[in-house]
Amino acid sequence: MQTLPNPTQTQSPSSPAVSTTIERRKTRPVPVGNITIGGGHPVVVQSMINEDTLDIEGSIAAIRRLHEIGCEIVRVTVPSLAHAKALAEIKQKLKDTYQPVPLVADVHHNGMKIALEVAQHVDKVRINPGLYVFEKPKTDRTEYTEAEFAEIGEKIRETLEPLVISLRDQGKSMRIGVNHGSLAERMLFTYGDTPEGMVESALEFIRICESLDFYNLVISLKASRVPVMLAAYRLMVKRMDELGMSYPLHLGVTEAGDGEYGRIKSTAGIGTLLADGIGDTIRVSLTEAPEKEIPVCYSILQALGLRKTMVEYVACPSCGRTLFNLEEVLHKVREATNHLTGLDIAVMGCIVNGPGEMADADYGYVGRQPGYISLYRGKEEIKKVPEDQGVEELINLIKADGRWVDP
Ligand code: SF4
Predict the structure, then answer these.
(1) In degrees rounded to 5, what are phi and psi of residue 66?
(2) Can you tell me the distance from the alpha carbon of 235 to that of 246, in angstroms, rounded to the nearest whole number?
(3) Is 322 in the pocket of ligand 1 (CB under 6 A)?
(4) What is d(CA 352, CA 369) in angstroms, rounded to the nearest whole number?
(5) Is 69 exposed, middle or buried (0-12, 13-18, 19+ CB in 10 A)?
(6) Under DSSP, is residue 402 helix (H, G, I), strand (E, B) or coil?
(7) How far does residue 172's CA lie from ligand 1's centre (Å)?
(8) Which residues form the IspG TIM-barrel domain (predicted)?
(9) CA 310 → CA 206, 289, 400, distances in Å?
(10) pTM for the whole thing?
(11) Is 22 helix (H, G, I), strand (E, B) or coil?
(12) Is 222 exposed, middle or buried (0-12, 13-18, 19+ CB in 10 A)?
């Protein structure tokens, strides 16, 4: 591996320092049960159960499973009034047998009655502006008149108002969740199938909420294509800045699929925005068990330095200079130390480039000479030990520093 000059070393005293931490966009805090989205709080991880909410015991178990592995807000679907009513029991039983879990209910087609019912039982309601007041598409339509536009706008206001008032009066929240794939026909006519259409769709609902003094809003603009999703969120931020709005954003790539590509696609969309300081809560949507989504969320946040939920391992890719089986040793070091959340540990193949490239790791395990490795604390070489005692001695060093805890 090539050693690159450290930019901080070549920086002239007069040049300004380049920040290496992400400056997050300032947003207003929005409560969801005992969790807060935005307002400088850590980026919140959420997911959604697949269970039918009429299956009360199954849903409780699924919510618990997710919550226990770090999902901080759990979403459920409520396709009917009966599903909405079931949430009352789910919420109560969670509280009685486990603990209160922040819940969000997804309300879709013409969902006013359902939304009003479920708003009494959950902490946040998610509505999709494209579906909340469903306009039946007219196949022969060639234009939308201003009067038609105003008429639908009025219908949306009438339908949304009772829900907004209910959430406002209970101190609860709403997600205005626009989806690229389900924009209202009128938006499609005016703006096309574009990020502009997505943003205007969200703004129309935001304005109604604001006119009723309701500001507990989280906005999402998901798309299954990463460039569309990126453009929509960025445009939303620009428009909100112009309008003096600071609503937190929920990031996600819809229908990302499964396996490695699903994870990479989600990371490309979510990670790119987070790196720009955009985003207050994330959901990775995989076509897999929802439990599989949580580690991906945490890995994205950890890689960006936004949350620290595991040990950060720095390891070189190995090359002709490598003095031991790097993959095997990394595995052993990880097995022994992966419960020491908060530490950065480096495993590097050789002394030539290893110490310089292990960044600011707290501890380093570096190939010294055939059969020997060196242990480092930060940049300081602490001791040379035979390779077969390397992991044990690393543990001893961490223990001596008082930074060890038993698994
Ligand atoms: S062994 Fe690792 S640290 Fe050393 S030169 Fe090769 S890749 Fe770089």
Answers:
(1) -70, -45
(2) 13
(3) yes
(4) 10
(5) middle
(6) coil
(7) 53
(8) 27-298
(9) 37, 22, 21
(10) 0.89
(11) coil
(12) buried
Q: How many other C-beta atoms can be found within 10 angstroms of the C-beta atom of residue 154?
A: 10
Question: What is the residue-wise DSSP string for 273-323?
Answer: HHHTT--SEE----SS-GGGHHHHHHHHHHHTTS---S-EEEE----TT--
CA atoms of 177 and 188, how far apart (whole Å): 16
User: In angstroms, how far is CA 403 from the centroid of its own chain?
Assistant: 29
Residue 359 tokens read as 């960044």
Alpha carbon nearest to ligand 1 atom 8, residue: 1
CA atoms within 13 A on the CB side of 393: 18
Say which residue the tokens 């698994």 belong to. Answer: 407
CB 209 within 8 A of CB 220: no
Tell me phi and psi for residue 266, to 5 degrees. Answer: -65, -40
- The kind and range of the H/E element at 330 are helix 326-337
CA 6 to ligand 1 center in whole angstroms: 17
316 marked among binding-site residues: yes
- pLDDT tens for 123-139 read 999 999 888 776 676 77
The burial of 394, by beta-carbon neighbours within 10 Å (0-12 exposed, 13-18 middle, 19 or more buried), is given as: buried
Distance in Å from the first CA to the final CA of the chain: 34
Q: How many residues does the chain have?
A: 407
- Nearest residue by C-alpha to atom 6 in ligand 1: 319
Tokens encoding 41: 């709080």
pLDDT band (50, 70, 90) for residue 4: very low
Quote the CA–CA distance of 21 and 128 in Å, as a whole number. Answer: 34
User: Is the dihedral angle over the CA atoms 251, 253, 255, 257 positive or is it negative?
Assistant: negative
According to DSSP, residue 253 is labeled B
Tokens 């990880």: give the residue. 334
> Which is nearest to 111 in space by CA: 100, 119, 123, 101?
119
Q: With a 6 A CB cut-off, is 359 part of the ligand 1 pocket? A: no
How do residues 223-258 score in pLDDT, each as one tens digit? 999 999 999 999 999 999 999 999 999 999 998 888
Write down the residue that tokens 């574009």 correspond to. 194
Nearest alpha carbon to residue 218 among 181, 178, 179: 178
Residue-wise pLDDT tens digits, 25-39: 999 999 999 999 999
303-313 in b/e form (b: 16+ CB < 10 A) is ebebbebbbbb
Beta bridge partners of 205: none
